Amino acid sequence: MKFLQLSVLPFLIVILSLNGATLAHPYGDFLHCLSLRISNSSTISKVIYTQNNPSYSSVLNASIHNTRFATPTTPKPYAIITPRKTSHVQSTIFCSKNHGFQLRIRSGGHDVEGVSYVSQVPFVILDLVNFRDVKVDTKNEVAWVQSGATTGELYYGIASKTQTLGFPAGICHTIGIGGHLSGGGFGILGRKYGLAADHVIDAKLVDAKGRVLYRKSMGEDLFWAIRGGGGNTFGVVLAWKVKLVPVPPVVTVFTVNKNLEQNATKIFHRWQYIAHKLPNELFTAVWVMKVNSSQVGKKTVQAGFRGMFLGGVDELIPLIQHEFPELGLAKENCTQMSWVQSILYFGGLPIQPVDILLNRTALPVSSLKAKTDFVREPMSETGIEGFMNLFLEEEADFAITMIEAFGGRMDEIRENELPYPHRAGILFESTYIVQWANEADSGRYINWIRRLYSYMASYASKSPREAYYNYKDLDLGTNNIVGYTSYEQASVWGLKYFKNNFKRLVQIKTKVDPMNFFRNEQSIPPL
Length: 527
Prior knowledge:
Strand content: 15-25%
Family: Belongs to the oxygen-dependent FAD-linked oxidoreductase family.
Number of strands: 18
Shape: globular
Protein name: FAD-binding PCMH-type domain-containing protein
Largest sheet: 7 strands, antiparallel
Strand order of the largest sheet: 15-12-14-13-17-18-16
Domain FAD-binding PCMH-type: 73-247
Distance between the termini: 42 Å
Subcellular location: Secreted, Cell wall
Organism: Gossypium anomalum
Helix content: 25-40%
């Protein structure tokens, strides 16, 4: 026993000197526990960051994409753990559980409600930033990608090896794979191939007991749950094996902008009736925002009709002219490029060089609030006019609604195939986002988006009013962070995200994490 105490002393000294912590501090026992289990002084200094560490703030803020949760009053973690190997994750789970700390798991930091890096009770962050390997096997058309990698890093890894394979995930290249896949993942290949989660064929997970599980050992129930049932609920998914999908060497993208004075309302009204019926190879979306009017000093609302076609422009033009002549698509609106460049195009970035996909800070950060809807019946022209007029208000200066057509492959997949249930019958998904610069003004911007959401109640899906888990919205309801959360309480928000799949998710949670170690404001609770 004396030998053990002497052997760990140097590692404790490293922690004390580098992090300025003492074992008398509330998290001293946690640090002591973790240092004993890692037991390598050079590794400890690169894995554990406490509040007195000079690098603490930079590590914390590096992956915060919503500055609404980066204020002086935002609760901060007692420590940030940046594991470099699986055993570090196991140790963090063990020590957090044994010393009463809530664990928040962060892959890319895009959680729009800050749930992956903020808690109202004592907590530590498990930041998977070092788990970012991407291994692409073009022969078998698969890839293993770790949860801390971004979608951009996965896309780049695929495109660096082949121009004829892709992956159907989202357009924001800085999103962490871990959060994206665990909530579903819809993107511009969605009408052709479905969700990103539909193409997960294996995973590596560490559960609440510290066991390392793959698909075969975790069983099909748990494997089903992690593909759309939400992160930080069933365990820590460290890596995902995904099936890649065929893409042509050349795709065609287009943008046609129409404002209120150019019949945007009527064209959008028509788009609702046809977009979900177009060939699976054609994805279209409408982005609504305030812009300058042709009249000096005036504002108007613009509907940007955007699309990506898995084929050439000479095939696309006659297709649109036949199915959607109201758009007036011309060749000059179109650009041919590779699939991976189309990701950059939709992300508002230059399409060359493509290695910008590796840049995690290429996009500006801001304070924001987001909400989502799924629409099953076309809106009336009057309804669209009222919706667009809300964007003329002052609070909508930096607001956008991204409306994405469904149908195609999404119509063919059963609601219970994965936890993500928003499949057949959805015309489009609407994602509402409002941003602001001054945190002191946050209240009026949040009130604006709540009014927008309230206005859309007449047109959105009903019983339940469906919502997309990857854009968490705590307005929909929350769990108790301390103490028991009943099924009835959690179902208020859970049914909106998961519909009838929520009950099965609760049953699986009860089996794999009955003590509810992995939890947050909108994690699946056990019975």
